[in-house]
Design goal:
203 residues, mainly alpha
């Protein structure tokens, strides 16, 4: 029975190939595009736009490298690039890329009017823009994010806090700021791995 099915499939494939051979290359491309469009119609309407931050010219690339002028042009373009919706394959937003890079002017632009979306938006592993700024020592950005409503007590899916990220990155000034009022993070807070921030600092 399985051999008969394979024979039928091969025969169908040969017939399809013969029909396709009579089409020009452009016609075949158009037919393939139309077929793909029909398959993705509906699902794509609700899909999150995905970009690669390493690709020059993309909005996430501008945010990553602090290119505010190019980012402004992209948002103002007729295509209407949406900084609150676009993410990379790990779920990082433009605000997270800008925060991690310490680009305060881009962060300010994205926070203005909620242009960059939720200040506490999560990546796939549960990290926020504030966590990225703490990890990389962007104190001015971290303060601005908290002022905009970012939660310094938020933790990732593995229970890692902003304080953990700060001490992991040896960002002493930022860690001191997180431990002080009004943040007052708990030095003894432990992620899933079971090590508090003091242990992270010593490792």
């Amino acid at each position: 029975e399985s051999k008969r099915k394979r024979a039928v499939a091969k025969s169908a494939a040969r017939r399809a190939a013969k029909r396709g051979s009579r089409l020009s290359k452009d016609e075949r491309r158009a037919a393939f595009a139309a077929q793909s469009s029909r398959k993705s119609d509906g699902a794509s309407q609700n899909a999150t736009p995905v970009e690669n931050a390493s690709v020059p010219g993309s909005g996430l690339h501008h945010a990553k490298h602090g290119d505010l002028a190019s980012l402004r042009m992209l948002v103002a373009d007729g295509e209407g690039w949406d900084a609150s919706a676009v993410r990379d394959r790990h779920g990082l937003t433009a605000l997270q890329w800008a925060a991690g890079g310490g680009h305060l002017d881009v962060v300010e632009y994205l926070l203005d009017g909620g242009r960059g979306g939720d200040v506490d938006a999560r990546s796939k592993d549960g990290r926020t823009a504030l966590m990225w700024s703490c990890r990389n020592g962007a104190l001015a950005v971290a303060k601005r994010l908290v002022h905009a409503g970012a939660d310094p007590h938020a933790v990732s899916k593995k229970g890692v806090s902003c304080l953990h990220w700060a001490v992991w990155g040896q960002q002493l000034e930022l860690a001191a700021w997180l431990l002080s009022a009004p943040n007052s993070l708990d030095l003894e807070m432990c992620p899933d791995a079971g090590c508090n921030a003091a242990v992270w600092a010593a490792s």
